Automatic annotation (TrEMBL):
<comment type="similarity">
    <text>Belongs to the catalase family.</text>
</comment>
<feature type="region of interest" description="Disordered">
    <location>
        <begin position="492"/>
        <end position="512"/>
    </location>
</feature>
<keyword id="KW-0376">Hydrogen peroxide</keyword>
<dbReference type="InterPro" id="IPR018028">
    <property type="entry name" value="Catalase"/>
</dbReference>
<dbReference type="InterPro" id="IPR043156">
    <property type="entry name" value="Catalase_clade2_helical"/>
</dbReference>
<dbReference type="GO" id="GO:0046872">
    <property type="term" value="F:metal ion binding"/>
</dbReference>
<dbReference type="Pfam" id="PF00199">
    <property type="entry name" value="Catalase"/>
</dbReference>
<dbReference type="InterPro" id="IPR010582">
    <property type="entry name" value="Catalase_immune_responsive"/>
</dbReference>
<feature type="binding site" description="axial binding residue">
    <location>
        <position position="350"/>
    </location>
    <ligand>
        <name>heme</name>
    </ligand>
</feature>
<dbReference type="InterPro" id="IPR002818">
    <property type="entry name" value="DJ-1/PfpI"/>
</dbReference>
<dbReference type="GO" id="GO:0020037">
    <property type="term" value="F:heme binding"/>
</dbReference>
<dbReference type="Pfam" id="PF01965">
    <property type="entry name" value="DJ-1_PfpI"/>
</dbReference>
<dbReference type="GO" id="GO:0042744">
    <property type="term" value="P:hydrogen peroxide catabolic process"/>
</dbReference>
<protein>
    <recommendedName>
        <fullName>Catalase</fullName>
        <ecNumber>1.11.1.6</ecNumber>
    </recommendedName>
</protein>
<dbReference type="InterPro" id="IPR024712">
    <property type="entry name" value="Catalase_clade2"/>
</dbReference>
<dbReference type="GO" id="GO:0004096">
    <property type="term" value="F:catalase activity"/>
</dbReference>
<dbReference type="InterPro" id="IPR029062">
    <property type="entry name" value="Class_I_gatase-like"/>
</dbReference>
Length: 709
């Protein structure tokens, strides 16, 4: 930077400015899109395909315009990852519960809390080579054809004239693209939903997004989508909480994943597939190869066949996570591709990108290297590690060395798909339906999720200072649902639409709402972070009982006090060492709050503004709060809402997720743990509330303003 400034401001500055002026351009309406070598392009939306009006076909490698766009984009930012700038990883095991040999034949691993789509990728080290499933935490994407990938990412990145804003989509260019590119409509509904601000990597669903194929030993082909569903259920942060965490702990998700594995509470996902026989490809009112569409579960059920468990943290993050390279083109025998035009482009782009990120020999890095034997004639290049002895590096050769494998020897053999069509840039009519599934998503949301969507759109459009952008987006929302558009227009200060852009079909589908994924028939608090708030003079009986019960349930109790030095119990015979003080850990970083009794402790907390804020903020973020004995009054003081009830003496009360008991009583530690195991009393109700993630009733009944955008 110093050299550039010297060249402009020092000797010869006039000549340099003339050179810069020569290279400076303004985009106008009279300009036409060209390649880098000056040839005008007729479209930037469709890769050249061998297709027909009613069927997508494979992309053609001969398309020079598409290849230029993708390769230029792949090489824009090196070595930074162009799309996903942050992330984490872990190692695990994959357990097959149900064979699918009837379908396939393989023999067989920015701030965290911003609103965004998140990657969800798995690398399997199999006997037949590496298989990568490269997906997202949403089942759909913004674009149908890979040629549009540079545009959608450019629109979402900081604006080019000022490099603002970082790590959010609330700006003119993003929403200008969304309006002008209608195929993104379904995806931006997902991006504005709670799915875009997950509570944890461990509570995200994962989706392969694209349509792949499975080929069995009989050479029969099925279309397939891959789905990962977490055992803990699907859950998100609330918006105010996500904003605060972005400043308080930008690495919240990374630390959360590592903490759970270190504590032996291994994250688990069920792995499922949706399958469509090849003969049924055209039996639906949407194109199954369209990456902007879901396969509704009421039409194509999910078949859960395996379990993924992450049980080992990396030893060194850079070499084992940052250097990992995923490619959608990495498949093994029995897994194939489809004519999904986004997938076909990803197969080209991902491999090209990894070469730019890590070098031509990226697959020789330890984290990427297959565990099965590797032998070929690829040679040389930067960082080539393999030493191959011999005198030939080509095929065929006079020694018959390293010959291609036969099918019986396990070679990957492509499915003999018949391809017919014309060479053209086109899409069929089903690909042109951009609103039906956006309406399906909206209709399938619960009232609380609809409120959050309205708030999210209102926040985003509030940051668009060009009124054309926000008013157009309200029009687009009217194509989905008139009530949605009117609610957003009122908050965003736009002219409210009076008519729907198109009728809402009213249909719903399971699996789209997060509430459909409550964590199983036996809700668990395993791995949940529960703050235990105490000061000097705390009730050691209630404290010991609660901490023991939490540990027994595999939760993570975090003791928080006014200071991080030992605190004395009321009886003087014991003490507790806080994990954090009130300023070091905030309520945003935990899932629930428990306050044991002790008159001296409660008096100290009641006189501490941060302690009162802890309780108030936890309540505002819909978290479960438990209190026994004297702190019941402290909770009443902090919340100041008469509609939230508390218990009478000796009784357990649960009201809007506030679980209280005036007197804990003389129960010993073993007695309290026994109560928990039997599902009785205070701790059982408190645990059940934590397992439900949040008390959404507070927000629905207007008791919590903090949780809304």
């Amino acid at each position: 930077m110093q050299e550039v400034m010297h060249a402009v401001c020092g000797a010869g500055a006039g000549d340099k400015l003339k050179d810069m002026a020569h290279n400076t351009k303004d985009m106008t309406k009279s300009d036409r899109l060209t390649t880098d070598y000056g040839v005008k392009q007729s479209t930037a939306d469709d890769w050249l395909k061998a297709a027909s009006p009613d069927k997508a076909g494979p992309l053609l490698l001969e398309d020079p315009f598409a290849r230029e766009r993708i390769m230029r984009f792949d090489h824009e930012r090196i070595p930074e990852r162009v799309v996903y700038a942050r992330g984490s990883g872990a190692f695990g095991t994959f357990k097959l519960h149900e064979s699918i040999e009837d379908l396939t034949m393989p023999r067989r691993g920015s701030a965290d809390t911003v609103r965004d789509v998140r990657g969800f990728a798995i690398k399997f080290y199999t006997q037949e080579g590496n298989w990568d499933i490269v997906g997202n935490n949403f089942p759909v994407f913004f674009i149908q054809d890979a040629i549009k990938f540079p545009d959608v990412i450019h629109a979402g990145k900081p604006e080019p004239h000022n490099e603002v804003p970082q790590a959010q989509s609330a700006h003119n260019n993003f929403w200008d693209f969304q309006f002008n590119h209608t195929e993104a409509t379904h995806m931006f509904m997902w991006a504005m939903s709670d799915r875009a601000i997950p509570r944890s990597f461990r509570m995200m669903q994962g989706f392969g997004v694209n349509t792949f194929t499975l080929i069995n030993a009989k050479k029969e082909r099925h279309f397939v989508k891959f789905i990962w569903t977490p055992d803990l259920g699907v859950h998100s942060l609330v918006w105010d909480e996500a904003l605060k965490l972005g400043g308080q702990d930008p690495d919240f998700h990374r630390k959360d994943l590592r903490e759970a594995i270190d504590n032996g509470v291994f994250p688990k996902w069920k792995f499922g597939i949706q399958v469509i026989p090849e003969a049924d490809e055209h039996k639906f009112d949407f194109d199954i190869l369209d990456a902007t569409k879901v396969w509704p579960e009421n039409m194509i059920p999910v078949r859960y066949i395996t379990e993924l468990e992450l049980n080992r943290n990396p030893d060194e993050f850079f070499t084992q996570v940052e250097q990992i390279a995923f490619c959608t083109s990495h498949v093994v025998p029995g897994i194939g591709f489809s004519d999904d035009p986004l997938l076909q482009g990803r197969n080209f782009s991902y491999f090209d990108t990894q070469i730019s990120r890590l070098g031509v020999n990226f697959e020789e890095l330890p984290i990427n290297r297959p565990l099965c034997p590797v032998m070929n004639f690829n040679r040389d290049g930067a960082m080539h590690h393999t030493i191959t002895r011999g005198t030939v590096n080509y095929w065929p050769n006079r020694f018959d060395a390293c010959r291609p494998a036969t099918h019986d020897e396990g070679a990957y053999v492509e499915y003999a798909q018949k391809v017919t069509g014309i060479k053209a840039r086109l899409r069929n009519d089903k690909f042109k339906d951009h609103f039906t599934q956006a309406q399906l998503f909206w209709n399938s949301m619960t009232p609380i999720e609809k409120r959050h969507l309205i708030s999210a759109f209102s926040f985003e459009l509030d940051h668009c200072d060009d009124p054309v952008v926000s008013s157009r987006m309200v029009q687009r929302l009217a194509d989905i649902d008139l009530s949605l558009a009117q609610a957003v227009s009122e908050k965003a200060g736009c002219e409210p639409p009076t008519e729907a852009g198109r009728p809402n079909h009213g249909r719903r589908a399971p699996g789209l709402s997060q509430i459909d994924f409550f964590p199983g028939s036996a809700p668990t608090i395993a791995s949940r972070r529960v703050a235990v708030l105490i000061a000097d003079g705390y009730d050691s009986v209630a404290y010991d009982a609660a901490c023991a019960a939490l540990v027994t349930a595999q939760a993570v109790p975090l003791v928080v006090g006014p200071k991080r030095t030992k605190l004395a119990a009321a009886n003087g015979s014991s003490s507790a060492q806080p994990d954090h003080h009130l300023e070091g850990l905030r309520s945003t970083m935990v899932d629930a709050l428990f306050i044991p009794g002790g008159a001296e402790s409660v008096a100290a907390l009641a006189g501490n503004g941060r302690a009162l804020h802890w309780i108030k903020e936890a309540f505002g973020h819909l978290k479960v709060i438990g209190a026994t004995g004297e702190p019941v009054g402290l909770v009443e003081k902090a919340i100041r809402l008469p509609s939230v009830g508390v218990s009478a003496a000796g009784d357990v009360c649960e009201s809007y997720g506030v679980v209280t008991i005036r007197e804990l009583g003389p129960e010993s530690l073993s007695k309290v743990v026994e109560i928990v195991k039997k599902g009785e009393g205070f701790m059982e109700r408190f645990f059940f509330g934590v397992a439900k993630h949040r008390c959404w009733e507070r927000e629905l009944d207007g008791l919590s303003a903090l949780s809304q955008n």
